[in-house]
Amino acid sequence: MSEDDVKPIYRYGVALLIIHPSMDSDEISHTLGQIGIDPYMMHTAGKVTRTPKGTEIGIATNTRWNAVYEFHDDERRFFEVVTQMVDKLHTHFKDFFRQIVLDGGRVELVVNLPGKHHNGSSMAPETLGKMADMLVTLGVEVFPKSNRFDD
Questions:
Q1: Which residue from 116, 29, 30, 121 is spatially nearest to 82, judged by alpha carbons?
Q2: Cys-Cys with 15: which of 1, 102, 105, 110 at CB 3.0–4.6 Å?
């Protein structure tokens, strides 16, 4: 089998990011934890902020909470994964996310792509509509020359 015959493995990540001027990050964790969404990193406005490794970096000016998921797939389908996440989030947290945004916060789904392989996907209008209904923003980040998703 030649190198051209080997099917590539596509690596990507999806992060749920919540930023709020004052909400307690434990409230976000409790709410999203009801369906098994746990934080990768979180801090609450006005409290000491630490890196994921525990290094203190100062007092938080706002609340930040995120969950991060990494995928290795043999198909270019990252927006299918996002669609599954949006369906779940829309079913359980539409009003919660809308309130965060109406309070001056932001809710964002971010697709993270390594930059060394061609990768692409499309999102259906229905998914975009559900995101708009929740006031959730879509972000895409490309990490050129990244080995972040390598085994």
A1: 121
A2: 110
